[in-house]
Amino acid sequence: MNFTSPFSLALYAILALSLLGVPVGQAMIGGSVLYLYLKGMDMGTVAEQLLNGTYSSFLLLAIPLFILAATIMGTGSVMDRLMKFCNALVGHFPGGLAQVNVLQSVVFASMSGSALADAAGSGKLMQIMMTKDNRYTAGFTAALTAASSVIGPILPPSIPLVLYALVSGTSIGYLFIAGVLPGLMLGAVQMGLVHYLAKKRQFPVEPRVPLRELPAITRDAFPALMLPVVLLGCLYTGITTPTEAAGLAAAYALLISVLLYRSIGWRDLYGALLSSARISISIGILIAGALVFNYVITVENIPLTLSGFLASFDMSPLGFLLLVNVILLLLGCILEGSTIILVILPVLLPTGVALGVDPVHFGVVAVLNIMIGLVTPPYGLLLFMMTKIADISLGTLVREMVPFLVVMVGALALVTLWPDMVLFLPRLAGYTG
After folding, report:
1. What torsion do the CA atoms of 28, 33, 37, 38 make, to the nearest 10 degrees?
2. Contact in structure between 118 and 110 (CB atoms under 8 Å)
């Protein structure tokens, strides 16, 4: 590699701008402009790629709509009702509130699709509940909250899987349903670990909710629990496109919050719209930067070069996936997940497909990798967020995080080695890959 080539200088510029605090999306646009200038190419290509990439993709509209649905459901009383439902189901198990923490991440998956949003929202609430009266240590609670937050983006609706569908051309419907079993398995292994640690450390158990109260609690939570059912039902029956399903999810969230639960007013709705707009804009800028930089990568012919390089090692599909696991786990420690999906995966995917790796299986494995990277020391973004939320040192959090990393990496290995677990439900829905 020529370290003074236009491409190398563009990478240096992106790195320097990022270190100076410039958002990654804008840094990628700046580096791409520098590359086109040094190559003597028309710098108007940047605007062309931005417009063609963002305005020609109907799928991109699904992202702000999913975010809006999540924000609306998180604004009213939906979260409280779902939390009561989770507590009624597993609160009386060993490590009661810790079990609730994991289950609520599974249930709340339909409300976010983002690990960072889960940790900042319902995760913060669980941190307060579990550490009250010193029932659980702040370090364990923060580690559990961080670990359980990675479950949501594997289950539908998943913003990372929407982004992967954007760059890979894979069906978002098949990707959503492919994430169901791996997401549930991730929740199951975490709950199993909590059960083991609860017995070992004598964690408290919550009082069992009387059986006569369960119907009322379930009835209160049922409309919110139906959101993913409505979403997936519309997708797989062909009633709506993914973007239309996202719009339906937002409308459904608004209807049950306003008409059924009557838990939000005009001021709350305005705040939800403003919050979702801010999040959508930040993701949009990142996507725009990635689209421009991906053009640079294509001009440099990097995907074909990398494909030829890896092909020279005569790798098997499994060997390639194991290599990708290592690469993405390392990158996940230092890069934001959306950046990896938009910039790194388009480079790796052609090689995988050429070797016979199924693109749906690859997408689920990659997203699970990236999510685990968020809680992997030393630079996992969720770790830094939880140290601030829990007001603890990074060392304390990392010590408590180790057992969760072990079981999550074990789950990742199973998903990698057993493609049929990922592809079983999509094939039932008609997928032929």
Report:
1. 0
2. no
Task: Say how far apart CA 150 and CA 395 lie, in whole Å.
Answer: 20
Domain boundaries, position 343 = 60-287+301-428
Return the closest-CA partner of residue 350 out of 414, 301, 295, 313. Answer: 301
- The CA distance from 139 to 399, in Å, is 8
Q: Are 101 and 89 in contact (CB under 8 A)?
A: no
Closest CA to 260 of 119, 98, 76, 39: 76
Question: What's the average model confidence in pLDDT over 152-167?
Answer: 84
For residue 182, is pLDDT > 80? yes
- Residue 239 binned pLDDT confidence (cut-offs 50, 70, 90): confident
| Residue 109 reports pLDDT greater than 70 | no
Provide the pLDDT for residue 117. Answer: 60
**DSSP codes, 134-170:** GSS-HHHHHHHHHHHHTTGGGSSS-HHHHHHHHHH--
User: Is residue 307 included in any domain, yes or no?
Assistant: yes
Q: Report how many domains make up the chain.
A: 1
The reply to whether 295 falls in a domain is: no
Nearest to 110 by CA among 144, 72, 80: 72
Q: Residue 30, class by beta-carbon neighbours within 10 Å (0-12 exposed, 13-18 middle, 19+ buried)?
A: buried
The mean pLDDT value of the chain amounts to 80
pLDDT in tens, 57-106: 666 777 788 778 777 776 767 767 777 777 777 767 787 778 877 887 77
363 in any annotated domain: yes
Token pair belonging to 200: 């070992």
Q: Does the residue 355 lie in any domain?
A: yes
Q: Which two tokens stand for residue 98?
A: 């810790």
Sequence letter at residue 258: V
Residue 35 has pLDDT above 80, yes or no: yes
CA distance 143 to 263: 31
Site of tokens 């992202």: 63
**Side chain identity, residue 127:** Q
pLDDT at 85: 78
